[in-house]
Every structure is written in C-alpha cells, then in structure tokens.
Write a structure and sequence with these properties.
The protein starts with 8 loop residues before the first strand and ends with a helix. With 71 residues, the chain is mostly beta strands. It has one helix and five strands; from the N terminus they run βββββα. Strands 4-3-2-1-5 form a five-stranded antiparallel beta sheet, with no helix packed on it.
C-alpha cells in the first residue's frame, strides 16, 4: 500500500496515471477506506481505494504553480 494521506498528490493506476489529483478527504464505505480526489490540472472530482493510487513524488515548477493556483 502507498500509505496515502490527505493532501498527497496521487495518480490512479486503473486509468493509466493520466490525471494528477490531490487527496481532499477520506471516507469509510462498507468497511473500506475510499479517498476523495480533486484534479490538479483538470476540474474533476473522483474517488478511489488506496490500492489503486500511486503517490506522485516528482515535482516541478509547473506542478508547484498548479498546486498553488488550485489550492
């Protein structure tokens, strides 16, 4: 498991890591933790289980700009 926390930048494996998200919340559904995700570059909200998430470790000036604008 990736040990995902609120505020982490993540990508979803099941979608080919196509959209960068920030974890905004977590909820428990049927005994499983589900993370609520907000898109960084796109206006999108999604949810995912932890085993489908990869923590985005690489940051650049462009990433930092988008994070600052979208936070």
């Amino acid at each position: 498991m990736a040990n995902v926390k609120i505020g982490d930048l993540v990508l979803r494996k099941s979608y080919g890591c196509d959209i960068l998200f920030r974890v905004s919340d977590s909820i428990i559904v049927d005994g499983k933790e589900i993370f609520i995700l907000n898109g960084i570059h796109y206006r999108i909200q999604a949810d995912s289980q932890e085993d489908d998430l990869v923590i985005h470790k690489k940051t650049s000036d462009v990433d930092n700009f988008h994070i600052a604008v979208n936070t």
